[in-house]
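Worked example 3 (structure in, sequence out).
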């Protein structure tokens, strides 16, 4: 049987196609093996955060050919810096674990479950990885996308993305990966045993409380307590303390350019530090107390000169406090406050 001249070309074309299919299948199998191993490590971890080192980072990222089928969100940690409260590494690591467990719970048995894995890497165990990613300050979280070929192609999370902790981290993940994190499942404030103990204590204490109320011998009958409580509520509301408690905002941050310096005022409308809120609340409280002094106390003073002096001082201090608040708002947001004369005055 004669072989045509086109037979070598056909065999060569068949060889090329077979080689391509073999390479594709091997790559797919390699990627599926890595995903299976990540799922296994995720299942063994405490809250869904996989612990990596230099070897495992190379296996799942630097040695894995793009485009991978999964993304990695890596939390860079350093145990020796846990004793520095200004960095809040342990708190952020806890929020990171909460983000990971919530994502796993909300995306269980869905295709998104294998599209994103949460990892942590420690400095002493993985100094080479820290150097490759160029991490020279903490806290630091970086997203490794499927198409990333080297550490320079990864995306770092800004400090503003830590402002609302797990919630703001979830916004970052959803914006960069187009995956849905879902609701953040925070543990309840009190356990069932604590609630039972509080209920029992209230039942025992209730009769004594009723007796004190009927005799008028409680702190609730003291006007000074109500006065102090009113001032506290006013300061609590205008300082944004509730926002700081709910979002677990730090009092200050370490400067990323110079870790020896602290940042008490954060420039940007998306974040407010605790010290900043207390400073503004203090200024507002000064104005409120001076206004109360003028309305309720100064009118009882019979000396006109004293009234004038106190009034002038109150106006000057209030003007100074309001000016500081307006200046800080302009510095943070870029919005200015302008005064206008009535048109009839022109």
């Amino acid at each position: 049987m004669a072989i045509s001249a086109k037979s070598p070309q056909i065999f060569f074309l068949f060889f090329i196609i077979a080689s391509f299919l073999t390479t594709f299948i091997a790559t797919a199998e390699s990627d599926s093996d890595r995903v299976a191993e990540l799922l296994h490590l995720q299942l063994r971890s405490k809250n869904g955060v996989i612990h990596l080192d230099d070897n495992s980072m190379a296996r799942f990222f630097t040695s894995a050919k793009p485009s991978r089928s999964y993304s990695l969100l890596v939390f860079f940690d350093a145990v020796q810096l846990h004793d520095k409260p200004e960095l809040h590494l342990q708190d952020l690591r806890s929020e990171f674990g909460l983000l990971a467990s919530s994502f796993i719970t909300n995306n269980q048995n869905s295709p998104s479950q294998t599209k994103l894995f949460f990892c942590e890497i420690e400095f002493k165990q993985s100094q080479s990885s820290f150097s490759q990613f160029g991490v020279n300050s903490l806290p630091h979280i970086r997203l490794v996308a499927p198409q990333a070929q080297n550490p320079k192609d990864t995306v770092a999370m800004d400090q503003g993305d830590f402002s609302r902790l797990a919630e703001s981290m979830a916004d970052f993940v959803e914006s960069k990966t187009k995956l849905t994190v879902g609701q953040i499942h925070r543990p309840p404030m009190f356990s069932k045993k604590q609630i039972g103990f509080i209920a029992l204590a209230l039942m025992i204490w209730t009769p004594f409380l009723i007796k004190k109320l009927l005799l008028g011998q409680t702190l609730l009958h003291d006007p000074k307590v109500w006065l102090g409580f009113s001032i506290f509520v006013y300061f609590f509301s205008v300082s944004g303390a509730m926002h700081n408690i709910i979002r677990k905002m730090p009092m200050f941050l370490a400067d990323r350019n110079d870790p020896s310096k602290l940042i008490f005022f954060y420039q940007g409308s998306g974040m407010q530090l605790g010290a900043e809120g207390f400073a503004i609340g203090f200024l507002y409280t000064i104005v409120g107390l001076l206004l109360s002094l003028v309305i309720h106390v100064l009118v009882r003073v019979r000396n006109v000169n004293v009234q004038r002096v106190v009034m002038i001082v109150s106006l000057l201090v209030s003007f100074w406090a309001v000016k500081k608040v307006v200046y800080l708002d302009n510095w943070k947001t870029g919005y200015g406050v302008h005064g206008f004369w009535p048109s009839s005055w022109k």
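Notes: The beta strands are 49-52, 71-77, 116-122, 140-144, 155-156, 253-254, 262-263. The radius of gyration is 31 Å.
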